[in-house]
Amino acid sequence: EPLPRVKERWRPLARLEDPLIGWIAAIAVTALALFLRLWKLGTPKEFEFDETYYAKDAWSMLNHGYVQKYVEDADKLILNGQTRGAWDAPAPSMIVHPEVGKWMIAVGEKAFGMDPFGWRVSAAVVGSLMILVMCRLVRRLTGSTLLGCIAGLLLCFDGMHLVLSRLALLDIFLAFWILCAVTALVVDRDWTRERMARLPGGSWGPLKGLWFRPWRLVAGICFGLAIGTKWSALYPLAAFGVLIWLWDAGGRRALGVRRAALKSALVDGVPAFVHLVLVAFVVYVASWTGWLIHADEYEKEFSQTQYAQFVSMDEDCKEKRDPDVQWPTAKEKDASGFGEVTQSLRSLASYHHDVYIFHTHFLNCSTHKYQSDPRGWLLLNRAVGVNVENDIQPGSQGCQAAEGSTCLREVVLLGTPLLWWGGALALIWAAVAWVGKRDWRYGFAVVGALTMWLPWELNDDRPIFSFYASAILPFTIVALTLAMGEILGRDPGPSRRRTVGTIITGSFFILVVLNFAWFWPIWTNELLTRSEWLDRMWFSRWI
């Protein structure tokens, strides 16, 4: 068959189906996800896992503008409804992650108060919005509202995503902003190619009207917010920066431009660097505004810490320090006006150096019972116990255990097994299909997954946890949904291929939902007998 014209090939797939139905279906999936994430969100009424850091940091930022140290029994005071006296004002606290995620937690605390529901509700809302973005992204990639909703439902029915959406940790916010950023890049790809098909072009291809790309600006803002949540978002920023250059070069090559890769590096790459890297940098620095306003407090408290004075650490974890080292700004007089801004920024740079030393050296000598090897993340090699209440006696809290046994409640960070195992296979297929089919959509999934996995695999000397893979999950689901689309086939009419494909994909989806229902109690702190709990611990490594 003759090859369709470029304009026809570049028509966005999302326009193949009714947009109103697409939005209604995506919102319905999001509403279901929000209901599941808000269900008994305030229980258990205690700080779970690292909530003890982030929830209190968020409240301090909300009320003091920066993170202050808290007293030893702060958790007990807060759970009893008392926030006054829980912080040692005005001494600042050493925080080892940026502040965007904590500001987002603070929004919920501002709206609902300093209690478990208040510090978790932002995660629930953001986790649900992430599912909306997932629906829209896959619909754009495939042109199918059905596949878009399947992708959203798969994310909705993942246990790791569910639990992270019900905790005041940073990882759900990181995954959300990364997903928003790469979705904006996919929208920009469609937007750019539509304009390229209409605009006149010479030996370099179309140039006019392509210097400013609004969706790339959105991506830059989202990447800045992702990095402002956790530094690991730097890796997808770098990888997708290269990928979009290849997309642009491929578009110009399709229009007949010779040496398209080199020319695209100049006419597309330079503006992309401004839209993504420079914008992300500005957003990131702006996210530290509260810190910068109180930079003098940090200069007094942290200008001569063990991290600032660090020189090296031997194999026995004994550190060598230089006691004469101090932040340069600590020796300077307080400036005023613009000089005060630059002085505070230099102090922030010194603080970043100290945090980097903490992450790259001091954690290498630590261990944790829930740490895991990144090589096994997609196979769910290690679950993380977030909270547990053991030895609930028969008759207490409705426990109906047999004589001699007890009940328990637990919250476990563990993905839906069938979804993750199927997703791991789908990523292998995506890598093959990217090369064999030369389909950019599979490359999108593979690159996204690798950028959130490979850096941890190369730097696994420190304790790291399986829930860091939550940022990989959206790309896994993209690969899985694309594979399901291949199995279903392109012809929507009745056929043997369509029937078999529907049975296979439908059976997998139903099994994922049933798997989700089976593990629901250990994700939501439900009461279980010890026998019922053991039925859900399929492997000893999950205990």
Structural class: mainly alpha
**What's the gyration radius in Å?**
25 Å
Q: Are there runs of 5+ residues with pLDDT below 50, and where?
A: none
Total helix count? Answer: 22
Distance between the termini: 58 Å
Number of strands: 7
Main sheet: which strands, in order across?
Answer: 5-6-7
Mean model confidence by pLDDT: 91
Number of domains: 3
Task: Note the main sheet.
Answer: 3 strands, antiparallel
Helix content: 55-70%
Strand content: 5-15%
How are helices and strands ordered from N to C? Answer: HHHEHEHHHHHHHHHHHEEHEEHHHHHEH
Q: Label the overall shape.
A: globular
Concise synopsis of the structure shown:
The protein is mainly alpha-helical and 543 residues long.
Would you write up a description of this structure?
This protein has 3 domains: 1-169, no CATH class; 289-365; 369-543, no CATH class. It contains 22 helices and 7 strands. It has helices at residues 6-9, 19-38, 51-64, 74-79, 100-112, 116-142, 145-156, 159-164, 171-198, 214-227, 234-254, 260-267, 269-286, 289-293, 295-302, 338-360, 417-437, 440-451, 454-458, 473-488, 496-523, 530-536, and strands at residues 68-70, 87-92, 310-313, 319-321, 384-392, 407-413, 527-529. α6 runs parallel beside α9. With 543 residues, it is mainly alpha-helical. It has a 3-stranded antiparallel β-sheet with strand order 5-6-7. The chain has a two-stranded antiparallel ribbon with strand order 1-2. The chain has a two-stranded antiparallel sheet with strand order 3-4.
